[in-house]
Amino acid sequence: MSFEAREDVDPPAGQAREPEPVERPRPSPRLLKVRRLIERCYADPLSPGRMARYAGFTATELRRQFEVCFGTTPEAYLIACRMRAADHLRSQGRAEVDIAMLVGYSSYRRYLGDCQRHERARRAAAGVAAMRERLGG
């Protein structure tokens, strides 16, 4: 009896099916413009409306197209950029309250919440990668 993996059979209990690779469309110059804005100005107050107006989109249109092309929303990408900058500042020994203000948060509480969500997501991604490694995938 052979136990080869088959595509048409559900995985054993407790194991997730491997996600299919997603073909993403090429981003338009306007979407790239928004992404560069976020990367350059993450410490500024960037609302969805401000980002959309910057590139000639409505907020809904920007959110939808950004997510299709980049796999995340502009707001989530902004938070990710802020968290990368916070990690860098933390490695330099900066105080958390200072980091919050330097990366664009006017509320320390909001910063802490985003840090906790970011850390949980990072650990979950690392756990998935570790699980795949253990399972030989």
UniProtKB/TrEMBL annotation:
One of its GO terms (molecular function) is DNA-binding transcription factor activity. Keywords: DNA-binding, Transcription, Transcription regulation. InterPro entries: AraC_XylS_family_regulators, Homeodomain-like_sf, HTH_AraC. Gene3D superfamilies: Homeodomain-like. It comes from the Bacteria. SUPFAM superfamilies: Homeodomain-like. Residues 1-29 are annotated as: Disordered. Residues 32-111 form the HTH araC/xylS-type domain. Pfam families: HTH_18. Residues 17-26 have a biased composition (Basic and acidic residues). PANTHER family: HTH-TYPE TRANSCRIPTIONAL ACTIVATOR RHAS-RELATED (PTHR46796). This is AraC family transcriptional regulator. It comes from Stagnimonas aquatica.
